[in-house]
Each structure stands twice: as C-alpha cells, then as structure tokens.
Amino acid sequence: MKFEHGALGILACVITALIGLNVMVPPHNTTSAPDQVMNMVTASGPRSSPAENLLDSANTAETWRVKNSQSLWKAYRRLNYDFKAVVEDDALVPRVALTKLPHDIGAISEVKKRKAMFFKTVLPLVLKVNEQIRADRRKLWEIRYRRAMGLAIPAVDRLWLAVAAERYRVKRGNMKALFKRMDIVPPSLALAQAAEESGWGTSRFVQEGNAIFGQWTFSTQDVLVPEQREDGKSHGIKVFDNLAASVRAYMHNLNTHRAYREFRATRSVMRRHGAPLDGLVLAAKLRRYSGRGWEYILSLKSIILGNKLRSLDDARLRDKPAPQEEPAA
User: Fold this and answer.
1) Which of 71, 104, 214, 316 has its CA 20 to 30 A from that of 277?
2) CB 143 within 8 A of CB 157
3) Which whole number is the average pLDDT over 230-259?
4) What percent of the chain is helix, strand and coil (3-state, nearest 5)?
5) Global pTM?
6) Confidence of residue 291 (pLDDT cuts 50, 70, 90)
C-alpha cells in the first residue's frame, strides 16, 4: 500500500507539472497531428517587432508566412474562410492559429474589413479553448457517473480529478464547484472583450505582448508597463508568447478569479435550466473586469449586438466536431 501511494504521489506530481507546463508555456516551433489539435507555432523574431507571423491550418497541415494584413487576407481566402458565412449561415470555422496579429491591422482603412480580420483571427482560438474545456467536462461527467453508480474510479482518473481541482482552485472532491468553474466562455462575449481590451488589435499591449485581454499582473517578469499608470500603482500587463496563450489565460481568469463569481453563478443557472449560454446576458456580470463599470458593460453589449456576434455562440470548428452539450449539472 505504501508503495502504491508513493507511486501515485509521484505520478500526480508529474501530471501536474506537465499540465502546468503545457498551459503556461506552449511548445515552440512544434506541430501536432492535424486531426487532433490546432497547431500552435511561434512567430520568428522578438514579440515587439513586426516579424513574420505564421498561420497554420490543421485542416490541410499547411503553413503560410504572413507578413502583413494583405498576405493574411490571401491566406484566409485560400482556406475559404468567410466570416460573413460563419455569422449568417453557420459555416464551420477553419482550425487556424495565428501567433500574433498583423502589425498593420490598424492601417486597414475600411472599418468593416478591419473588424472582420480581427474576429476571424481570434474566433478559432476561442473555439479551440472551448473545445478543450468541453472535453474536460465530458471526462468530469464520466467520473461523476461512475461515482453515482458506485463503480470504482481508476487511479489515473482520480489523479486527473485532483489536478483539475487544483487548477480550478476548488476543494478536492467538490465536483459541483468544479462543474461550475470548468465551463466555456461564449464566443460572442470573448470576441467583444477582445475587441474592447485590445482596441480591435491595435493596442501596444497586443502588438508587443500578444495581450488580447489586457490582463493585469504584479509580476516583474514578462510584463508591459502601462504608459499612463496611476501614481502608486505597481501592476503591469501580462505578456504572452502567442495569442492562443492569451485566450487560455483569459478563460482561466474568468473561471477562477473571485471577482467573477457572479458571472460563473449566472452561467451555472443557465446550465441547470438547459438554456444556451448567452454572451449578451453574461456580459452584464463582468462589471468588475474594468474600472469603467457599467460603461464597460454597455460597450460590450454594443459590440455584441452591433456586430451580430450572438450567432457565433453556436460556431464550430472544422474537422473535429465539438461534442454535444451535456445535461445540466
């Protein structure tokens, strides 16, 4: 027994370390099997330079070098990625991952075109993270079902459950609390916040640090200092290696920080009633995300409604269909 417990303890540490490493530091310059994941690649050159970006398609396993907005448009056309069709006709979204936004996105004179490029870039990243969260929720349902039926829980699943509880900052064994936190963020809300926080991809924070959502940090490493930071403030804006890492951190923030308990509670109520997760409704629960308070909420709602983003809450990636929604927790 002592040996088994010791072995399980060591295995738990290894799993925790690997998960943490994968979440915080995505592998550089690597590719994965096209039908399994969306490949994440790193742009060449420093983050602050207008270096070439790499656009990778898990659908065709091809990679394009995109130096600016014009070449990015060409790559999207090659993928047959029509954002209007996604919004109005429920077209599937290609599995593409752009490591950083084009440095000249702000120079696109046509507002509609500039918005479309921004949404087309961020949407696949949001859908991919949501897909991963759904997969975790399915696993959590399977474990809960086995427990309810009085069946034995395999050791590897017990370890997975312990790691998940630690990651989502809930007490071990509290599956109800874990279900409440381990859940998706509606694409409409994520895109509206991305647009608002990044100035539609033009802010210094996203251009130099891939910080789409302007997340604060009090660390002294890998940060950008706001130019107009108030006296006495010591926060910085967290820097990310790529856009996908920023999206993952944003969702983890909403799913764990105490400031967003109302957001999670409302989302949980929607689940219990079998209602779709409505980004417009949930936006009203993020008043504490910004010092602007209700003005911030009104801005998010305006972006969602003005750009018809609610239809994207049902958007899905190509190739690997997202799982069906599970029963309410």
Assistant:
1) 214
2) yes
3) 85
4) 55, 5, 40
5) 0.80
6) confident
